[in-house]
Amino acid sequence: MTLLIEALSGVLDTFLLYLFASGFYSKYRSTKYKGHLYLLVGIFIIVMSCIHMPGILRIVLSWSIISVSTYAIFESTVRKALLTSTAFITLSVLVDVICEYPFYLSGISRTVILGQGLARCIFIIFAKLINLLLILFIVTLFGKKGLLDIPFTELLPLTTCQLVSVFICIVSLELVGTVSHFLLILLTLSIAGILYINIVFFVYMRSIRTNYENEQQRRLAEQQLETQLSYYEQMKSANEQTRSLWHDIKKQLTAVTALVKDSDVSQAELYLETITKSFNSLSKIVDVDHPVINAILNDALGKSSLAGITLKIDVFVSPQLALSPLVLSVILGNTLDNAIRACSGVSADTPKIVSLTLRQKDSILYYRISNPYDPEFSSKKREGIHGYGLKNVSSTVEQIGGTMQINQENNQYTVEIILNL
User: Are strands 412-420 and 364-372 parallel, antiparallel or unpaired?
Assistant: First the structure.
């Protein structure tokens, strides 16, 4: 009977682990073998539940198995897997401690609770039910909302508190029956208080981080709006220039026709040269059938022209390119701004040329930008509206599952990015 009860406890723990982990992860490493891995983890947990061992050893083994299984089953980093297992073990131990008090205060000793029979069975069901409710609450509140993507340095206080709480819980379990009820209740409340203070601190830090990210997005949105407005102003100016040019060309073509009839070839050539210069004086506008890319490239074209920099563009993308305006602004806007700024700092005898390639082939998008640079000039601190640099570009590329490579050879700076759309 005892083994059956402990096996039932292991089955429930396996289900709770699945519920907890799946609440924070949405992608599996292998959908084909996830069922087999869950079964293997369940067997380990059930076997450990049926074997008598010290509490510390049981917790260490459980923590190790849960960490490895989380990393093996889900698309998780080692850090995320360790955080998940630590949180799950902390919650389980804390619930076990709290759920022992009603039995202990009712006159049922801990020996009976940990032994066999009806009391043990009721305790397991009661503890797992409380654990289930807490897991549902935590998953609803924090699940799949980027909680585990926060840098480890920010989660370190919370993780440390969890480990300390686990240790205190184990100590308090060992003290049941040897100290007064008041001291045990005080100890439990202290544990809960420490966790509460730490969680409030964590939520506060998370709020600061969220506000910082929102500020970044706001500034990038403002930058994107300015770029769009600049593009529309360029288009308006170019349209006005074109209308004015065609008005003048009609008169000039009439004059050329008359001169040709009169065999005044030299004067006709002068008129044709004037017409050619008028065409060359038109504002240069980039049009690649994508409004956001058009705006970003035309804004960069205007900046590069003012700085005396040549911008060579080779772009071929679908009008339905599946990237958000914010992502395009971060990647294209920052790298172009960096390239133009770097070119402005090179010596006069160095050709100031920025070469940009952006090509889409099926679901693959290839981006490359190359420019000369002066290492001494480029090491100076950068300020201004962009201000996020390649670190922000790299972070954005990583978030959407792309790869980024930077090369610095012969004072030529090259950034290559490949995105799988």
Answer: antiparallel
Specify whether the CB–CB gap between 314 and 356 falls below 8 A.
yes
Per-residue pLDDT tens over the stretch 337-370: 889 988 888 888 888 999 999 999 888 999 999 9
Assign 371 to helix, strand or coil: strand
Q: What is the DSSP string of 331-348?
A: IIIHHHHHHHHHHHTS-T
Cα–Cα distance for residue pair 234/232, rounded to 1 Å: 5
- Which residue has 């184990």 as its token pair? 170
Q: Indicate whether 247 belongs to any domain.
A: no
180 in Cβ contact with 188 (< 8 Å): no
Quickly list H helices, 262-388. Answer: 265-280, 291-306, 325-328, 334-344, 375-378
Structural domain tally of the chain?
Answer: 2
**What CATH number does the domain containing 342 carry?**
3.30.565.10
Q: β-strand 353-361 against 364-372: which pairing, if any?
A: antiparallel
Query: Which one is predicted more confidently, 124 or 235?
Result: 124
Name the residue range of residue 135's domain.
2-178
Is residue 165 within 8 A of residue 198, CB to CB? The reply is no
Residue 307 lies in a domain: yes
Spell out the alpha helix ranges (H) of 106-180: 110-113, 118-142, 152-175
- Distance, in Å, from the CA atom of 83 to the CA atom of 133, rounded to the nearest integer, reads 20
In a domain, 206, yes or no: no
In a domain, 87, yes or no: yes
Name every residue whose Cβ is closer than 8 Å to that of residue 287 and which is 6 or more positions away in sequence. Answer: 294
Residue 383's pLDDT is 44
Q: What angle, 0 to 180 degrees and rounded to 10, lies between the N-to-C axes of helices 389-399 and 334-344? A: 150
pLDDT in tens, 168-214: 666 666 665 566 666 767 766 776 676 677 667 666 766 777 777 77
Chain centroid to CA 368: 22
